[in-house]
Each structure stands twice: as structure tokens, then as C-alpha cells.
Amino acid sequence: MTTISLPTADAAIDARALFLDAMRHTAASVAVVTTDGPGGRAGVTVSAVCSLSADPPSVLVCIHEKSPVLDIIRRNASFCVNLLGADQSHVADSFAGRIPKWRADRFACADWETAASGAPVLRQALASLDCSLARDVHHATHAVLIGEVGAIHMAPRDGLLYVDRAYRCIGAAAPAHAEVLA
After folding, report:
1. Fewer CB in 10 Å around end: N or C, the chain?
2. pLDDT of 16 higher than 70
3. Other C-beta atoms lying within 10 Å of the C-beta of residue 163
4. Is the pLDDT of residue 81 over 60?
């Protein structure tokens, strides 16, 4: 194992590049966070999503402070975390702005329903978590949004991951090693 200390402030760019290179090896679920309401309809692709609490059911989502979607979520005070299935990478790419034909209307890339909060729910998403905005915390370049889950929609199937700068699919579970479990 090699340990590399982060450089001093004089080499902040190198530290950033080193950090990004290290974090690219972390597998993350791929989600599209959507919202609709008085602030408008919008969505953004994120990979920084995790469960926060089961009591009450809560999730944590990180969105860049410069994203125009963040202000819309704040105005609407609700959002839906749509966890993507293995065959929905085009949805992630659409909401990341990578597909020119859907830049004007990113929602045209898939079929949507409406959650109780008013947020768009991706039909056939692996799971969709309809949330009310409980907390909004600023940290460095990102907002950490905490959402209390009011409804869950599921279509169980293989999920979409992002690791090493590419989409991957979840396969069969790794076998357990009997000697570790004994």
C-alpha cells in the first residue's frame, strides 16, 4: 500500500487532481434528482446520494452550488431521487447535458409520472424516493441536501453504477467466503 500525503496549499491543483483520481475508484449509484413546483421543473444527474436515516427515512444528496437546479429545488422545497436501472444511462447523460437533442427538454428522454410532492418520478426507475427538503447545508463547492422520504416507488431490477469514469451494471452478488463467516 502506498500512502501519499496531500500537498500544501501551494499545490492545491495537484491535490484536487489526486483526490479526484482516488475517488474515481469509488463505485456510486447513478441518480437523477428531479423537482417541480413554484420554482419550476428541473433535474440533474448526481452520484453523491446515500441513505442517512431509517427513522425517519432520510437521504442525503450533494449538488454543486453553481447548478441552476439547486435554486429550483430550494424554491420548491421538495425533490425526487430517481435511482437509475442498468438500461437507463441515457437518462443520466440527458440530465448531465451530454445529449444535444434533449438539452432543451431533458425530460423528453424517458416516461415520467408525478409524485405527491409534484416532483417527476422516472417510470421504471430502480427506485424513486419522493422527498421534502428537510435541511440544506453549504460545504465548499456543494450543497448537502437532506430529504425526508414521503413515498417510495420501486421497479426492482439491476442498477446502474458509475466507477472509474464509466457506467457499470450490478451483476451477481459476490460469493461469501465460508471461512470468513464461520
Report:
1. N
2. yes
3. 13
4. yes
Under 8 Å between Cβ of 156 and 126: yes
Give SS3 for 131.
strand
Distances in Å between the alpha carbon of 123 and those of 34, 42, 74? 13, 16, 24
Nearest alpha-carbon partner for 135 in 68, 56, 67, 43: 56
End-to-end CA distance of the chain: 28
For residue 130, count CB atoms less than 10 angstroms from its CB and return exposed for 0-12, middle for 13-18, buried for 19 or more. Answer: buried
57, pLDDT greater than 90: yes
Q: Name the amino acid, one letter, at 124.
A: Q
Contact (CB, 8 A) for 45 and 96: yes
Task: Give me the phi and psi of 81, to 5 degrees please.
Answer: -95, 110
